[in-house]
Amino acid sequence: HAIKAQSISDGRHYMLGRIAGLPPSTKPDLGVVDRWRCVQNPGIAHVHEAFVTRAFGDSSLVVVRDYKPLAASLASRLLERPAPATEAFLWSVVLQLASALHAVHAAGLAACVLGPSTVWITPAGRVYIACGGLLDLLSPGRSESLAAAQQRDLRAIGQIVSALLCAGAEGAAVARGQPPLPLAATVGPGFSPSLRELAVYLSDQRAHTVGVDGIVRLAGARALVELGAVRREADLVLDGLRVEMANGRLARLLCKLGFVAEGADSSGGPGWSETGDCYLAALFRDYVFRSVDEDGVLATDMAHVIGNLNKLDAGSSEKVMLVSRDDKSCLVVSYSEVKRSIDSAYSELLAAAQAAARAWR
């Protein structure tokens, strides 16, 4: 079972993977989490901790992993897909899994239980291994060698790709737990020779040892396509982050302006006067949000608001004329002067609030 949860310590969301009904004889090796916690790769749902609990009415093992929004198991995605995956998508999955397994194997570990139910896929095609450490926790004394387990990991990529090639009733059967056909039997003549060669490479149990370098060699220039897609996604994220950072600055500026201007409206701030910092902030607030057009109608121009707030945030030396509501006061000041006034008045308000809080203690 997978449960979305929010931590009370850091406020972040995590995924709780629950293994229900542990037999009394099963003693999970919780210390293995320390080794898995060190494995860092974007294709792995990072393991944070594991614990045994009776909060669900039985003895359950809970593994805490990173929460991946909109991600679902490959098995559940198979029920939604009317047609087999395209070759470009198959190579993307292969390269993402190979990258993740390379990090796992370099740490001296093995995923061990890769399959349609333990690999997550997002609608955007991001793939995550969500079974890291599970078998190590449940079967600490297993006899399989690390080398054999790592080979099984790499060959499981072929089973996962074969599952993605299933559709309709066959895909539903795989989703219910039926093993997919060997990859070599599902890659037809409509695919490229390199994908068919990959199918043979991952399926042949006798001829050779499978390695990540061999998978990358067969992928060839497709690895560069995947790298380019990752860079494009990173650029989009950074662009969005820059926008949100700008929005955050304007939000903080609006909060300051609101606190200070309210002090002017109530005429109760310390040192308040019609030429003081609070009054200047109130005039600027009216200039930004109470401007009217030639017909006297309130102008709801977002460009006017955002442009003036950006100039204020930057402390521009450009001059602006501020007029009181009764038209009796008119000030020509720079945005930098308004910004200094707002910062000064806000600092006074903070100092007064802190002093009042100390007096109440």
UniProtKB/TrEMBL annotation:
<protein>
    <submittedName>
        <fullName>PAB-dependent poly(A)-specific ribonuclease subunit 3</fullName>
    </submittedName>
</protein>
